């Protein structure tokens, strides 16, 4: 078991209320030493200050030339949609009918679910994502397969079966009673098993009847430490449809709020077309947002207002939203978040982007006491980045001046090629083949 690692390290040491506080909260050690203790962070120091902590003759894993950052936290993703990423031509509602529902129908088959779960987790790990909040399908076997695969890797994942009882094909809908019963069984089987967590997952308001939402409300009341994961205000037609379906409520979020589905462990994906009182409601209830830039651009949904999110003091993380999102790479997703900022006149720094992708995302999921940075005692989930792999990256890396430029280049030019290894709870669970030759004692 590895106890000592020498590399460059970057993390954000505490959660912040404004982006202006971020540079001070950031920590960069060009030549650092991390010590692990049974899967947790024991210490992180400068090599020169820390090397006396090593036992005589102790083996040190040498990752010099690499940058280690906390494992990425993907706050919104659909594992069954892996196989339909990059589907041409539609915006949200047509895209669901034409591409999404047919693919999700296949997850009644446990073998298919197991095969795709393995592929999906491999995609997360090879992109440096160590934690995620994940949609299954309506079939409980979809979630059983995913949790079974994740528990073997001891990943900190949160997932849930979709709850859906209208406005979708027959083979993907259920009665509120079935939904309630199957959800209870899954909670009993998986919630708080090791590092796994369960999320109540009503797809979104249009596929939920009032009776279904009542069941979700009841479950939430009974299991207060469970998560709530859904979509909110992604697309203008969707928002108009919710107003038609729920005329008695004062807007989209008011539907969820009425059934007490807002709150500390509630995560709403997208939030693009929000009214002032909806922002206020997210703040007042301590709910969180998953900002999904590649998805929002790909489906033409809209441009997230990150600046407003800070002003309203709403917690947020970054989500890939595969398969409406176009990449599993959180680096690429951060790069697209920057471009969304550009279109809105907001300057997203690399420091801020890495914050959202690590500690900020962990806070949005209420997991920041376990993961998100290298504070002593946290679980040792991290990514070993190779800052420059392609000829272009190497050229730009060589003429970049400081860590901020290097981080910005990683999110602008980087992708899965830059992931050298991924560690979960102090164990290397994935590594790029050619890395082997670099591993030796110092
Ligand atoms: N809204 C309801 N379902 C979905 C989905 O599967 N993907 C996205 N992006 N939005 C949704
Ligand atoms: Fe989604």
TrEMBL record:
One GO process term, biological-process aspect: guanine catabolic process
GO cellular component terms attached to this protein's record: cytosol
Highest rank taxon of the organism: Bacteria
Keywords attached to this entry: Hydrolase, Metal-binding, Zinc
Pathway: Purine metabolism; guanine degradation; xanthine from guanine: step 1/1
Coiled coil spans: none
Cofactor binding mode and count: Binds 1 zinc ion per subunit.
Function per UniProt: Catalyzes the hydrolytic deamination of guanine, producing xanthine and ammonia.
Keyword presence, Zinc: yes
InterPro entries: Amidohydro-rel (IPR006680), Guanine_deaminase (IPR014311), Metal-dep_hydrolase_composite (IPR011059), Metal_Hydrolase (IPR032466), Metallo-dep_hydrolases (IPR051607)
GO MF assignments: guanine deaminase activity; zinc ion binding
Cofactor(s) of this protein: Zn(2+)
Native source species: Erwinia tasmaniensis (strain DSM 17950 / CFBP 7177 / CIP 109463 / NCPPB 4357 / Et1/99)
Official protein name in the record: Guanine deaminase
Gene encoding the protein: guaD
Catalytic activity: guanine + H2O + H(+) = xanthine + NH4(+)
Family: Belongs to the metallo-dependent hydrolases superfamily. ATZ/TRZ family.
One protein family per Pfam: Amidohydro_1
EC numbers: 3.5.4.3
Lineage, top ranks: Bacteria, Pseudomonadati, Pseudomonadota, Gammaproteobacteria, Enterobacterales
PANTHER family per UniProt: GUANINE DEAMINASE
Domain Amidohydrolase-related: 68-429
